[in-house]
Every structure is written in C-alpha cells, then in structure tokens.
Amino acid sequence: MAPNSLNNQLQGILNKINKLGISKNESKSLLLKLFILKKYGLISEKSKENEFVSLEQLIREWDSSIFNFYQKIERFFISEVLIPWEIIELILNLDTILSNHDFFSSLQADTKQKEIGQYFTSEKTINEVNNKIFSTKLTSNKIHSVIDFSAGLGDFIIPLLRKTELTIYGLELDKLSFEYCICSLIFNPKLSKQRKYSLLLTIKNGDAISGFDEIVFSDLCKNNEARKLMQDYLTLRLNLINKTNIPLEEDIIRVFSIRKQIGDIDKRFKEFNWFIDYPERFLDYDLNFIEENYFDFTVGNPPWIIYGPSIKKKYRSVLSSPPFSKYLYGKYNFVLPFLILALQLTKKKGALVLPQGIVAESYGKKVREKLIEERLLTKIELCESKLFEKVVNDYCIIYWDKESKNDTFQIQDNKIQKTIHVAFASIMNSHYKIPLLPKYHSSFIEKIASRSILLKEIIFVRRGLTLAKKYQQFYSEADPENNKIEHKKLIKHNAFKSQKKEGVMNFQVFYDGDKFVYDRELLGAPGDFSLFEREKIIRRNRGRKWYIGLDLSKEIYVNDIFDIIYSIDEKVSLKALFGYLSSSLTQYLAEYFIQRDITSNVVRELPYPDFSSNNLLVMEQLVDQWLNSAKGEEEFQRLRSEIDKIVYKIFDFNKEESDFVNSNSRYNWKHEQEH
Ligand SMILES: C[S@@+](CC[C@H](N)C(=O)[O-])C[C@H]1O[C@@H](n2cnc3c(N)ncnc32)[C@H](O)[C@@H]1O
User: Fold this and answer.
1) CA triplet 581, 587, 592: central angle to 5 degrees?
2) The pTM is what?
3) Which of 92, 209, 395, 640 is deepest in the core (most CB within 10 A)?
C-alpha cells in the first residue's frame, strides 16, 4: 500500500481534479492516464506554456496517430477536459517509485476492490507461473495464444510481451483497471506500433463469465445484418491476428467500427461476448464453432468473491448452462466458474492462482474429478504466505497440461518445503480428495480418525446469523467513539489471549448488557433466536488461527463470521467439547488435516474422541477451573497443558506422538510460549 503521505498527495490531486466538474470515476480515470504518461516521461514541459492542457493535447504531442485509437478504448471520455497546468505539475512531482499497485489501490475504494475480488498477485508468483507455463520454447513459425481473463492491471501478461510469437489476450471487468492496463500498453514507448495494434484487438473490457453466453451469439447469427457484419469482422481479425496482413491503422479502425455496428443492432451484442469479441478463437469463416483454436495457454488469478445473492442473480442463467453447470457443486467460491472456464478454453497448458479450498473442499469435487480422471493436473503448489494483505485465505497454484497425460502429479507444499508425487489412480475415489499431506502426517491423522467419531455425529454446526444494520446502528450510537468496530464489540477476547498474535486461542465471550438490548426484530438473516438462546460454543477463525468461546449463559449473539456449535440431543458435554476444541491436537488438525481455510464444513469433519466417563469428568473439571479460576499466566498454561494430557491419553499417544503434535503445529500455544 502506498505510504500515507503519498496517499494523501494522491487524494489531494484527485480532489482538485474533481473540481473540474467531472464525476468521481472520470477524475480517477484522468488521474490514472496522466500518471501513466508521467511514468513513461511523456508529458513534455513544452505544454507548460499553456495555462490549461487536455489529455488529447498531451497525447498528440508525442504521437498524434495514437490518439485515433486511444478514443476507441477509452471507457471514461475525458480526453477533452481542460486541466490546469498546476495539476499536471503536482502529478509530475509524484514519487517515481510509486508502484502500479500502490498507485491503483489508492484510487480504487476498498469496498470496490472487495466487491470485484481485486487483489494483485506478487511479481514472484507471476514469474513462477509464467516460467512454468512457458518452460519449453515456443516454435517461432506458429502463432501461439495466451489469455488472462481477469487481467487486473495486466501484471501476468505484460512480462509476456517479450515473446513475439505469442498473441496476448486480456480481459478485465473493471473499467478503471482495464483503462490502466490498456493505457500502460499503448502509451508504452518501447512497444512497436504493430504490437500495440495487435493488443488493441485482444485486450478487452468485459465480464468473463456472463460473456460466455452462446445464446447471445446464436441470436446474433440469426440476424442477417449482424451475421454479415460478423463475417467481415471475423475475416479481418483472422488476417490481422494470424499476421497474414500486417495490421495498419485503417484496419484497426475498421475492426472497431464494425464491432460498434454489430453492437448497435441489439444492445446484447454490445456487451463483451467471447464469441463476438474473440471470434478467431472459436469460429470458422462460416461462423461455425470449432474447437481447435481456443487459447493455447491460460494464466491468471481470478476474483475470489463470495457467491452471494446478487452474484447468483446476475449469473444464474449463464451458470446453468454448459460448460459451467456440469461442474458447479454445492456452495462454491466464485473462483470455481473461472477455473471451469479456464479448463474449457485452454488447448495446452494453464495455471491459476486459487484459494486452497478448491483442492480440498467439497465444492471443488466435480472439477477435481475432471482434473484427475482426465489426467490434466500436473502440479498443485500450496503457497506459504498470504497472497494479499487483506485476504486471509491460503492460496495455491493449480497447473494443468492437456497434452501431458502423466500417471502422477506433484504437490509442492512450500510451508513444509516438501514435494510429493501422487498417482492419479490412488485418488480416484468418490470425493476426489487430494492427499495434500506427506505420508507421516496422513498416517498419523488416519490413526486419530480410526479411534474417533466425527464431530458431525454429535454436534450441530452452523454459521452465525448476520445482525441487522439497525442493531449495529444502535450499538454505534451507544458508543460513538467506537463506531468503526461496532460488530466486533459483541465478543471480547480473554485478556491473556488478545496479547498473543497467533495460536490456539480461547476467549471468554461476554455480553455487554449495558449497551445491547435484545429485540427479535433486530435479527437480520432468516432463522430464529432459539439458535442463540441456548448453551453453545462459538467459533471463529482468521486464516489458520482458531478462536473458541463457550457461552453457558445463553446470551451471546454473533455475526456471520462465527460458527455456532451445540450438542445434538445432549449427546456431548459442551464443556468437554470446548476442552477438546481448544487443545493442541485440534490446532494440529486445524493446520494439517484441514490444510485450508477453516469452514463450518471442515469443523463437522473433524475427528472427536470418545470420552470415557472418567476422562469426561476430568476434562469438565479442568474446563471449569480454566473458566472460573483466577487466570494468572502460569495457571492458565498449566490448565491448558492438563487438557492436552487428557486428549493424548484418550488417543493413547506415547511421548513421541504427543511431541509430534506439539512440534508440528506452528501456532501451538505451548510452542509460542517456548519462543
Ligand atoms: C484477484 S484480481 C487479479 C488481478 C491481476 N490479474 C493480478 O493477478 O494481479 C481479479 C481481477 O478480476 C477482475 N474481475 C472480477 N470479476 C470479473 C469478471 N466477471 N470477468 C473478468 N474480470 C473480473 C477484478 O476486477 C480483478 O481485477
């Protein structure tokens, strides 16, 4: 993120631009274009003679012909706005080392970034992906194609510009990001005119998922006028992209002009559509579908978005058709349709950066089945660090190769620095669960599982319900100073725990009775108060950190990032469950058994020990002491360690095995203490 002073500087410039009488987005668009011009050293001091300059003037000054194209790709039409030189000067004085990401993230609101899943991949990950996908030299007598269909600022595709034998396709939904990407390309003085012309044909603004709509395309074909235009357009594009004709300025202008005419016939044809906008990859001259073209390579990092009601509504129709419908399963992360699309579109090799849930959670089952049954998968890289500052999910990189057909694939776990080779045949089971662990962990976990029952057999787990805005409002009015963190005030971590940054953490949850008044009307989501007004365990996680609280007074209401856990038919003592779920063994399982973000489903699948009545009693007593006794740090640690001992006893662990648990959990509370 840009340092605060820079952020303020940029916001200051933006405010000044805003006063020119243009909209907020137009102001951002203007600023980003000026920033790119400045980055390439294309703003000449010559223009200073004028009190005001326009973007058009600035662009024409270094390349008048570029302006003919520039207007075709502009999403916010601000090239004629007169800008006081004073603003240009502020931009010229901006720090030159400001990275694209820092600059862009200062422009784009956090809420917008979250909504469209816009987090930028590190240069290291991008290089790694590109190097692996293009590890073999491309034959120079053939044109190859690559697509990044969630291109952001173009970080995956820009380094590939060096490969002249590659036609580079890029698609981006967000207009501002698209403008940043395309302007970075066509303003770049190092790129040849031919390269720029070619990129103008292939870098587009649009929606990768809703654009994969064959119905819109078949309707276009039924319209004679549109069909005729489409054929001319396709012929032109085919010649230009296959380099039968060297692209000339007038060819490009013609392509844009026909595309516009097609869009003018029916407003549905205006929107991005894969078959209309990249027809050379899908169609023959008679507009029949052919599969041979597609894209040789696919790279990228699709948006990780929660598949909420608004997305559901927007994409319902396209996702209920092939190729998506066959592979969507259960409640999925929105990256799943992107992976399905990528697998469909790639002719040779591809790689996507994805949340780890895709390799282990049930929503990825059907797509894993495809990757495994068809032996497409070549490698899963489980990545060590968090990908982005604001995203907590662990991520992985999935590589596939449609031509390799090996019997095995690799799992590279960067966290434990191990690579294992897995035979496809070994995982052709009904769930296509990929064993992400080295053998010594998996056999240890198998052993635990063989001596356990599943939590889901004895407990009910569900996500907490979102509290209505009205309640949140009420809360912030009651405590205006803290109105930014109002929903977090529903819980409070035990003082000992909150000092620790990581580890198995327990918290005593309490209800701030002064400020919270229960009112049934205030519950937001469907469901009823009986879910809350009962003895329960409340659980949440941040990445792999696992927090747990016990509410015996039946009064805690939580928001939607929490699990509510209670016993089915009193089958299990909540205190004992609470003890077990806060033990070091659970933390070990959370890290190794789960191997990904901890969801409610994952909790259900955890093994649970069958307490004998004696052990159960001791566990309950320990939990009681722990919750009620004075909690000096030492006492606290001692009780925790006693809880661990009971758990190890139930599982019949010898010293070696309990040491194994302690030494293998990164966030183990004892482990932390030792450091
Ligand atoms: C995780 S970011 C990755 C950006 C860039 N490729 C990178 O790796 O740094 C995902 C990008 O996908 C874009 N996006 C979101 N939904 C999209 C859609 N339906 N079609 C195309 N792009 C989309 C977002 O605007 C965002 O720029």
Assistant:
1) 125
2) 0.76
3) 395
